[in-house]
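Try this one yourself first.
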C-alpha cells in the first residue's frame, strides 16, 4: 500500500467542498458534459464534471509527477485513470499499490451508503485514514528484540 499517496488523496478529499468543481460522485471515474453552441459542441470540463475520488486525483494534477493521468473517451466523455501502461482499476491498484479488495473497499460505489457530494468525499477520506492508521501505529511503535 502506498501510504504517502493515499494520505495525499485523503487531504485532497478532506478539502473538498460541495460547491467545488468537479462534483464528487462515486458512480464513475469522471464524466464531462458537452453542450451544443450553434454548430459547435463545447466540452464543459471541469465545470460540469462529475468525478469520484480517483477522478479527482487524476484531474487535480497533484499526482501528475508520480505518473497518474487519465484519458477521456471521446464517445462517452468519461474519464479513465491511467498509470504507466495500465488503465482503469488496474491503474488505480498499481498507482496506490492496493489489492483488489482494498481498492474496491476504498473507491467502489457499492462500498458506501452516500455516493455523492461533500459527505461522500469525506467518507472516502475517512476510510483511507482507517486503512492507513494501522501502518502509522506500526511505524511509531518501537521494535522489540
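Now uncover the answer:
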Amino acid at each position: 500500500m502506498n501510504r504517502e499517496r493515499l494520505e495525499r488523496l485523503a487531504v485532497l478529499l478532506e478539502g473538498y467542498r460541495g460547491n467545488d468543481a468537479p462534483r464528487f460522485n462515486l458512480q464513475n471515474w469522471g464524466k464531462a458534459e458537452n453542450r451544443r453552441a450553434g454548430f459547435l459542441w463545447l466540452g464543459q470540463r471541469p465545470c460540469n464534471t462529475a468525478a469520484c475520488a480517483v477522478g479527482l486525483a487524476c484531474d487535480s494534477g497533484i499526482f501528475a509527477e508520480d505518473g497518474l493521468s487519465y484519458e477521456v473517451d471521446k464517445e462517452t466523455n468519461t474519464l479513465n485513470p491511467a498509470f504507466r501502461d495500465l488503465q482503469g482499476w488496474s491503474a488505480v491498484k498499481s498507482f496506490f499499490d492496493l489489492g483488489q479488495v482494498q481498492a474496491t473497499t476504498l473507491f467502489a460505489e457499492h462500498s458506501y451508503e452516500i455516493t455523492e457530494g461533500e459527505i461522500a468525499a469525506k467518507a472516502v477520506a475517512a476510510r483511507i485514514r482507517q486503512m492507513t492508521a494501522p501502518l502509522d501505529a506500526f511505524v511509531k511503535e518501537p521494535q522489540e528484540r
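Discussion: The longest strand covers residues 68-72. The radius of gyration is 16 Å.
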